[in-house]
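Something for you to look into today, if you have time. Could you write out one complete protein record for me, on any chain you like? The space below this message is yours for that.
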Amino acid sequence: MTLSGVMRFVLNRNTLSGLALASALVAAACASSAPEAALSGTRWQAQSIEGAPVAYRTPTIEFAADRISGTGGCNRYFGTYQITGAQISVGGVGSTEMACEPVVMAQEAAFHTALGDARSFRREGETLVLASAAGDVLVFRPAQ
């Protein structure tokens, strides 16, 4: 085998190894983000919080990849979420700190508490339900 032939063999072997590694990384990325894809790219408006209808400014949630954002009714918030099967966990939530009317702030506090307590999710037609271990806590309809 000539030096040129050896170089082609090494180059081809390295190229194939690189392609195999890249393919494995892409497959792993797709597998790890597939569950989040069930909600990724969707926007929702809260209809009820812990069984009570939304009475003031409507809280929202938007799912993008592994991140959430929206408004609690007064303040914008952001955080992360992770889905495993029908389980959901929300974490790293932060928000702006504007003051609104006391009733709006109370509703927003209940929304954030319910969001943090969410442990499972389900979609029922045009409805998204986030539930705690104790039952349904947040019910959403698609945002308009």
